Amino acid sequence: MKEIDERRKRRKRPIILPLRKPEKEIYGEEGGDLSDKELKGRKPMMIFICVLYYLSLQVFLMDYLVLISVESFQRNLVTIKIISFALSIEVEGESFLAEMYRTLVESFAAVKSDKNILASCTTKVFEFNLRDLLRVSLIYAFLLASVYFRPYIFRIRLKVCDAFYPKRRIMRAIWLYNNILRKRIPMMKSDFDRVADSAGRLSKKISMIDKLAARFALVDDCLQCIGYESLYCLMCGTSGLPHDPGFFKCSSYGCQGLYCEACFLEANKICALCHRLISFDDEDVSEEK
């Protein structure tokens, strides 16, 4: 953006640097301190995670209190021993028939045992495990760290994208520069709107389909499969359909510059990417239009 500002300054055009105080709260340098918008954005999320962790600690504390209460109640219980008894039948005699009856009676006799089977009248409570508390604490600590370093992760992501796609970096800087310039100079914005209305465009707003396609890659892939494609102005972001006569593409080899008619006239037919003259099919385009 500094290079764009210097070039516009040499051409005696409006510039945006240095940024004003309200703009510094929104925009910041890649290697500089965090802006107020980034700081305010992560503060509510950090507070939300801390509140969730506090509620989790309360659950662990209640579980521990229940454990202590049940153990104290069980220690004060009195176990009443039940005297075991067994009813048996004895068969006297030494004959074969007596032996058969004796075997039959013993097979159905009750099993004698000195141990009493007693069922507990209280709920079985598991012991308090500190490992579970430590595991939950580590999860919340990871979430808190990810939220705290989120702005820095986004900046690293931009650095990586700029290293692999340098042209996208230039396009993003040009769009941001013109966006700040239009917000700062209402007269310029009104001039753009007047030129756009005179050119016959009803609206410069992006449609809902284009917003969904820009936000979700799956929607964009589905639209491309059915043959739906949109064009976007490099400077103002206005959307349009392919073969739209109101859009002008730079014919320089390898350049991806694409401009709507209002931005095309405002830029004096000079591409902001390659700084060359933008060629167009209609050589009789009216400057008043």
Describe the protein in words.
The protein contains 11 helices and 4 strands; from the N terminus they run H-H-H-H-H-H-H-H-H-H-E-E-E-E-H. It has 289 residues and is mainly alpha-helical. Among the domains are: 12-76 and 128-164, no CATH class; 202-289, no CATH class. The radius of gyration is 40 Å and the shape is elongated. Residues 232-276 form the E3 ubiquitin-protein ligase DCST1-like C-terminal domain. It is found in: Membrane. Residues 2-177 form the Dendritic cell-specific transmembrane protein-like domain.
Short descriptors:
single chain; 289 residues; mainly alpha; two-stranded antiparallel sheet; two-stranded antiparallel ribbon; 11 helices; 4 strands; 53% helix; elongated; disordered C terminus
Pattern of helices and strands? HHHHHHHHHHEEEEH
* Radius of gyration, whole Å: 40 Å
Instruction: Sketch the major β-sheet.
Output: 2 strands, antiparallel
Specify the helix fraction band. Answer: 40-55%
Number of strands: 4
In short:
The protein is 53% helix and 3% strand. The protein has 289 residues and is mainly alpha-helical.
Ordered list of secondary-structure elements with their pairings:
Layout: H1 2-10, H2 21-24, H3 36-75, H4 96-107, H5 130-148, H6 150-164, H7 166-184, H8 186-198, H9 208-215, H10 217-225, E1 231-232, E2 239-240, E3 247-249, E4 258-260, H11 261-266
Antiparallel strand pairs: 1-2, 3-4
Helix pairs in contact: 3-5, 6-7, 7-8, 9-10
